[in-house]
Amino acid sequence: MAEPGAEAPPAPPTTAAAEDVGAQRFEVELEFVQCLASPEYLHFLAQQRYFDDPAFMAFLQYLTYWRRPQYAKYLMYPHCLAMLDALLNSKRFRSELLMESFRDFVHQQQFFHWQHKRRDPLVDALREADKQLTGTLPEKPN
């Protein structure tokens, strides 16, 4: 079997290929890459010494194809790509994930990012303009 890094990424699923092995592989890799957004899961991987395994690190490198727009559009937790980059590029990040205090710190920073994330300035400007014209804010889209 070829090294994970040598394989081509699976094609995004199509309606006709939903039951195909390639579609299953796509779904499994999508699920796994999104798990990387969880500091708790990264802590578990660090405790199990996965980051010391060259084959596992090669697999993480292989998963960088999720940055491509045709794949990234399927991500529900795009923050996983930042975590993937940190895992691949920072030995210190990987080693500090062993500590519960660092796991908690990463989780806290992630929460603060989500809590204070700036919305689209254009949407904010349009809502403010609508408020000034009508005197009320329009309802937020679903």
TrEMBL record:
One of its GO terms (cellular component) is mediator complex. Gene3D superfamilies: Mediator of RNA polymerase II, submodule Med31 (Soh1) (1.10.10.1340). It is found in: Nucleus. Keywords: Activator, Nucleus, Transcription, Transcription regulation. The keyword rRNA-binding does not apply. GO terms for molecular function: transcription coregulator activity. One of its GO terms (biological process) is regulation of DNA-templated transcription. It comes from the Eukaryota. InterPro entries: Med31_sf (IPR038089), Mediator_Med31 (IPR008831). Pfam families: Med31. Component of the Mediator complex, a coactivator involved in the regulated transcription of nearly all RNA polymerase II-dependent genes. Mediator functions as a bridge to convey information from gene-specific regulatory proteins to the basal RNA polymerase II transcription machinery. Mediator is recruited to promoters by direct interactions with regulatory proteins and serves as a scaffold for the assembly of a functional preinitiation complex with RNA polymerase II and the general transcription factors. Component of the Mediator complex. Belongs to the Mediator complex subunit 31 family. This is Mediator of RNA polymerase II transcription subunit 31. It comes from Tribonema minus.
